[in-house]
Amino acid sequence: MSKLDRRGFLRRSTALLAAGSLPVSLVEMAFGKSSSQNFTFAYISDSHITHLKGREFVRNWDRGLIRAVAEANLLDPRPDFVFYGGDIAQLGKPEEIDHGLDILGGLRGKVHYVMGEHDYYLDLGEHWRKRLGPEHYSFDHKGVHFVVLNSILTFDDWMYDKWPSGEERMHQMARLDNPQGSPFMVGDEQRAWLKKDLAKVGRQTPVVVFSHSPLQKIYKGWNFWTDDAEQVQALLKPFDKVTVLYGHVHQIQYNQIGNISFHAAMATAWPWPYPQSYRQQASYLPKLTVPMNRADPFFERDATGWQFIDLHSGNAEVAYVLPNNSNRVVRFDPGAGKPVDTQYQPADKRIPPQKHY
Ligand SMILES: [Fe+2]
Ligand SMILES: [Fe+2]
């Protein structure tokens, strides 16, 4: 997509945003020399649909997802497909997954899904698989190879032997600070599958990997972490252009490790804090030069929003569009060899939430 086209695209989408915040992420793929190959897809994640009783669900989380679906349907240009980043449900109940899928059923076009730990640990993914199919798969679209991995598996003894019931297991894994939890991992079986899957892909083919947890290690205490991340990264190393998109952390994060760009999506439900804010815990993510201003309880959709990811030339250029904060762009700096925020804001000069609606 030419720069002019892209600006027009941003303008149209920003105008749409002005009509109301969009808790979706629109991802622009601009790999090819031929503009006919450029395409976009939307990214919605972490709705945490919560069942109360009977047909009652927590309304606020329903509303976040309903809004994302309605607004994704208005996107112009139309995204080629929608990706859902996991955690449809809060406690993995069939009612929650079904209710979430009823809402997501309103989306126009194809939707691809990845498993979140909140979808998994009640029944080890049985209902999710029944509704949505396999937990790992790949597909090709307009010259890009897409891979979906279930990154929230853990040790067999923790999954199968440790807990008296699925409910107890789910409650332990549903906590942010989960001392009884267990680190997430992709596991031997899927890594063997991934190796085989990638063997038939040309090194110049752009590869995009969807996972729920980050395929990088950020903060173990909150499971912002995938234990075998380095082993997965090693399988992706031979490719010229790799992008990993993940949910789970409910916040903006970006990183570059070797040839791999990492980007997190915001949630439609709520924002999580940054790990650094929790008792000054060390985080393995590079310092974000412009952290989000949040969470302000007076702004219902603060810390939700969407972003454009332009991977032209194989490096990510991310335009963040935040409903209650000033927009910003994080652009790969070839000199520095890493993404750089174009609007550095020291902590005492952050721009506060901008407007109510
Ligand atoms: Fe989540
Ligand atoms: Fe999650």
Characterise the protein shown here.
By secondary structure, this protein is α/β, with parallel strands linked by helices. It has a single domain, classed as 4-Layer Sandwich (Purple Acid Phosphatase, chain A, domain 2), CATH 3.60.21. 24% of the residues lie in helices and 20% in strands. The chain contains nine helices and 16 strands. Strands 7-8-9-10-12-11 form a six-stranded mixed sheet, with no helix packed on it. Strands 1-2-5-6 form a four-stranded mixed sheet, with helices on one face. α8 packs parallel to α9. The N terminus is likely disordered. One fe (ii) ion binds next to loops.
> Main sheet: which strands, in order across?
7-8-9-10-12-11
Query: How would you state the average pLDDT, rounded?
Result: 82
Task: Identify the overall geometry.
Answer: globular
Number of strands: 16
CATH topology: Purple Acid Phosphatase, chain A, domain 2
Task: Tell me about the largest β-sheet.
Answer: 6 strands, mixed
How many domain units? Answer: 1
Poorly predicted regions are: 1-12, 16-21
Count helical runs: 9
Bound molecules: fe (ii) ion
Q: What portion of residues is helical?
A: 10-25%
The secondary-structure element order is HEEEEHEHEHHEEHHHEHEEEEEEE
The CATH fourth-level homologous superfamily: Metallo-dependent phosphatases
Strand proportion, as a percent range, falls in 15-25%
Whole-Å distance between the termini? Answer: 33 Å
